[in-house]
DNA sequence: ATAGGGTTAG
C-alpha cells in the first residue's frame, strides 16, 4: 500500500492533473485546470480531457462540455462513453442524444453501457420515436439481449406511454432480474394500471424472485391508488419482518399508502419513525393531512418542515394550498401563495392557480376568485382554473356567473362531458329545466357520456366493486334489501333525500331509483352487512361524492353507530355520529 | 493519469 502510493506520487500527477482532481465539480476551478492543461501542453491527453468533460457535466455546465468536445481532436470510445454517461445521469437528456449522434458520426462503436445511458435519456424525454431508433441501433449492434439494456428499454416504453412495447421487451427477456421486474411493475403503476402492477408483483413472487425496497415502492403506490389497505399492510409487515432497508422513498411510499387508504395515524407513525426525511416526505405528510381535512395540522407540519431546513418546492405548495382550500384557511393560503414567489423564487403554475381559485371559491369569495383569474395572462387562464371557478359558482348558487363561465369552458373544451354535467346542474338548481334538457340533448348529439361512478371496498382482503344500480354482485338481493331498511331508519331519524340535480341519461321514473342506489350507498350497505360492529368502513370512490349520499351516510353513521370513511376523487370524508370531517365544506 | 449500468416515493 505504502509502496504503491510512493509510486503514484513520484510518478506523479502533473500540476494540470492535480488541479483537475482538486477542482471536483466546481466550474471556476475546472476552467483553471483547463488552462493548466493547455499551458502545460497536455491538451492532447484524452484521459485528462475525459475527466474534464465529465466534471463539466456533473458541474451542470453542459455548454462548456459541448465547447470542450469540439476542441478534442480525436475523441475515443472511452471519452464518448464517459460523456454520454455523465450527461445522461446529470439530467441533460437532449445533450446525451446529441453526443451519441456525434459518437456515431465519428464511427466510434457504442457499447451496452452507451445504450443504457442513451435509452435512459430517451426515457427522460418520453420520446418514443427517438427511443425506437436507438432501440434498433442496439439490436443491430447485438445488445438486444443485454439485461441492462432491456430493463432500460422497459422503462423507456413505459415512460413514453407504450405499455405494450414495454411488455414485449419484458416478455422477450430470457433472464429477468429483480430490476427487470421492478421496471415492469413500475411501468404498470405509472400508467395507472394498478391492478396489473400488483398482478406482476404476484407473478414475480411465483417465480421466486426476491422483491426489494424498490419493488415495494411501486407496489405501495399501486395500493394507494386502489385503496388496497390489506395488501399495503402486508407489505409493511414484510418489510419489517425481513429487515428490508426502509429508504426515504419506501418510507414516503408507506406514508402515502396509509394516508390514501384512510389510516392517518399509521401514516403519522411511519413519518415519526423515519430517520431521514426529504422534501418529498414532507410533502407527502402535508398533503395527507390536507386531504383528510386537517388543515391546521398540515400548516403546522409545513412550518416544521421549513424550521428543519427543508426547502419547499412547487409540489409542496400544491399540497399546502390545497390543504388551505379544504379547510377554509383563506388568510394562510393567500400568504403562502405570495411567499411562494417572494420567498422561494418559485413560479406558480396552473395547479397553484387552481388551488387558489378553489380556496377563494369555496369560501364564497367569488368576486375575488374571478378577479384573480382575470389578472392572470391569457395562457395562464387554463381550463382547469375556470373549472374550479365553475365549481365555486355551483356551490354558492351564483347562476349568472356560472352559466357565463360554463359557456366559456365549453367554447374551449367542447368534448369534456364534465363541463356539460356541471352546466346542467347549475340550470337544474336555478329551476331552468328547459335548459337542462337542452344541455342533455347537446351531450347526446356530441355522443358524450358522463363518467361512470363506482365505489370499492375491501372485506376480508377481497376488493368489491359497485356501480350505480349495479346488480352484478352475488348478494345483490340482501344488499338492496338492507340498504332499503337503512334508508328507512335514516328517514325516521330525520333524513330527507336531497333533491337530485345530477344529469341523468335515464327516464324520469328511474331517477329516484338511481339516486337511491348510488355506488357509495351500495358499498356502505355491503360493508355494514359483512363486517362486525366496531369495524370502520372504508370506501374508495372514483368521482366526487354527491350531496345526497353525503347526507345519507351521515345518518347511516348515527343509526348504525359506525365510523365510515369515504375517499372521493379529491379528499376524505370521515363520517361519525352524524357528522363529516369535511364540515360539509368540500 | 479516464467509467462502468437498468428499477423507486409527493
Q: What do you see in this structure?
A:
It comes from Ficus carica (Common fig). Keywords: Repeat. Pfam families: DYW_deaminase, E_motif, PPR, PPR_2. With 586 residues, the protein is mostly helical. Among the domains are: 176-276, Serine Threonine Protein Phosphatase 5, Tetratricopeptide repeat, CATH 1.25.40; 278-348, no CATH class; 352-450, Serine Threonine Protein Phosphatase 5, Tetratricopeptide repeat; 454-580, no CATH class. Helix content is 66%, strand content 5%. It is built from 31 helices and six strands. The protein has helices at residues 2-11, 15-23, 27-39, 46-58, 62-71, 77-89, 93-105, 112-124, 128-140, 147-159, 163-172, 178-190, 194-206, 213-226, 229-241, 248-260, 264-273, 279-291, 295-307, 314-327, 330-342, 350-362, 366-374, 383-395, 399-412, 417-429, 433-445, 476-492, 508-516, 519-530, 547-559, and strands at residues 454-459, 462-467, 537-541, 564-567, 572-576, 579-580. It has a six-stranded mixed β-sheet, covered by helices on one side. β3 (537-541), α31 (547-559) and β4 (564-567) form a beta-alpha-beta unit. α4 (46-58) packs antiparallel against α5 (62-71). The longest helix is centred in the C-terminal third of the chain and has 17 residues, at 476-492. The chain is globular. Mean pLDDT is 92; it is low at 1-11 and 505-509. It binds one DNA strand of 10 nucleotides through α2, α4, α6, α8 and α10.
Amino acid at each position: 500500500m505504502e509502496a504503491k502510493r510512493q509510486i503514484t506520487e513520484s510518478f506523479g500527477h502533473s500540476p494540470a492533473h492535480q488541479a483537475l482532481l482538486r477542482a471536483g465539480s466546481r466550474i471556476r476551478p475546472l476552467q483553471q485546470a483547463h488552462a493548466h492543461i493547455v499551458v502545460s501542453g497536455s491538451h492532447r491527453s484524452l484521459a485528462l480531457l475525459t475527466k474534464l468533460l465529465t466534471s463539466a457535466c456533473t458541474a451542470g455546465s453542459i455548454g462548456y462540455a459541448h465547447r470542450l468536445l469540439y476542441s478534442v481532436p480525436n475523441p475515443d470510445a472511452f471519452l464518448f462513453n464517459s460523456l454520454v454517461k455523465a450527461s445522461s445521469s446529470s439530467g441533460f437528456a437532449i445533450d446525451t442524444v446529441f453526443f451519441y449522434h456525434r459518437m456515431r458520426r465519428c464511427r466510434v462503436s457504442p457499447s451496452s453501457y452507451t445504450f443504457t445511458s442513451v435509452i435512459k435519456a430517451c426515457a427522460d424525454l418520453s420520446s418514443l420515436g427517438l427511443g425506437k431508433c436507438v432501440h434498433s441501433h442496439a439490436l443491430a449492434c447485438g445488445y438486444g439481449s443485454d439485461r441492462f439494456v432491456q430493463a432500460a428499454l422497459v422503462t423507456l416504453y413505459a415512460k413514453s406511454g407504450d405499455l405494450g412495447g414495454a411488455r414485449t421487451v419484458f416478455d422477450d427477456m430470457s433472464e429477468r432480474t429483480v430490476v427487470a421486474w421492478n421496471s415492469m411493475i413500475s411501468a404498470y403503476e405509472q400508467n395507472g394500471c394498478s391492478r396489473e402492477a400488483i398482478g406482476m408483483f404476484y407473478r414475480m413472487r411465483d417465480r421466486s424472485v426476491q422483491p426489494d425496497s424498490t419493488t415495494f415502492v411501486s407496489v405501495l403506490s399501486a395500493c394507494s391508488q386502489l385503496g388496497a389497505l390489506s395488501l399495503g399492510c402486508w407489505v409493511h409487515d414484510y418489510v419489517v419482518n425481513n429487515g428490508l432497508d426502509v429508504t426515504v422513498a419506501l418510507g414516503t411510499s408507506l406514508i402515502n399508502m396509509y394516508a390514501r387508504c384512510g389510516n392517518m395515524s399509521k401514516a403519522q407513525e411511519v413519518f415519526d419513525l423515519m430517520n431521514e426525511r426529504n422534501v418529498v416526505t414532507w410533502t407527502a405528510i402535508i398533503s395527507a393531512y390536507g386531504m383528510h381535512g386537517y388543515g391546521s395540522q398540515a400548516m403546522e407540519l409545513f412550518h416544521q418542515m421549513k424550521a428543519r431546513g427543508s426547502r419547499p418546492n412547487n409540489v409542496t405548495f400544491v399540497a399546502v394550498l390545497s390543504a388551505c382550500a379544504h379547510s377554509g384557511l383563506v388568510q394562510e393560503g393567500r400568504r403562502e401563495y405570495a411567499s411562494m414567489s417572494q420567498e422561494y423564487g418559485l413560479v406558480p403554475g396552473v395547479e397553484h392557480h387552481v388551488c387558489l381559485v378553489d380556496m377563494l371559491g369555496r369560501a364564497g369569495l367569488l368576486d375575488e376568485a374571478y378577479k384573480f383569474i382575470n389578472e392572470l395572462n391569457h395562457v395562464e387562464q387554463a381550463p382547469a382554473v375556470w373549472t374550479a371557478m365553475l365549481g365555486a359558482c355551483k356551490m354558492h348558487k351564483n347562476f349568472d356567473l356560472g352559466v357565463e363561465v360554463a359557456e366559456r369552458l365549453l367554447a374551449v373544451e367542447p368534448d369534456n362531458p364534465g363541463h356539460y354535467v356541471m352546466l346542467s346542474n347549475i340550470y337544474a338548481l336555478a329551476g331552468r329545466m328547459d335548459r337542462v334538457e337542452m344541455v342533455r340533448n347537446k351531450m347526446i348529439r356530441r355522443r358524450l357520456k358522463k363518467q361512470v361512478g363506482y365505489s370499492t371496498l375491501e372485506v376480508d382482503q377481497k376488493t368489491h366493486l359497485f356501480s350505480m344500480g349495479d346488480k352484478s354482485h352475488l348478494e345483490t338481493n340482501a344488499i338492496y334489501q338492507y340498504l332499503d331498511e337503512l334508508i328507512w331508519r335514516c328517514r325516521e331519524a330525520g333524513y330527507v333525500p336531497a333533491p337530485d340535480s345530477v344529469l341523468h341519461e335515464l327516464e324520469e321514473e328511474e331517477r329516484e331509483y338511481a339516486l337511491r342506489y348510488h355506488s357509495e350507498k351500495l358499498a356502505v350497505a355491503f360493508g355494514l352487512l359483512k363486517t362486525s360492529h366496531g369495524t370502520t368502513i372504508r370506501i374508495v370512490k372514483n368521482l366526487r361524492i354527491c350531496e345526497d349520499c353525503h347526507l345519507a351516510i351521515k345518518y347511516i353513521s348515527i343509526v348504525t353507530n359506525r365510523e365510515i370513511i369515504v375517499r372521493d376523487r379529491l379528499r376524505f370524508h370521515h363520517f361519525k355520529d352524524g357528522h363529516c370531517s369535511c364540515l360539509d365544506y368540500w
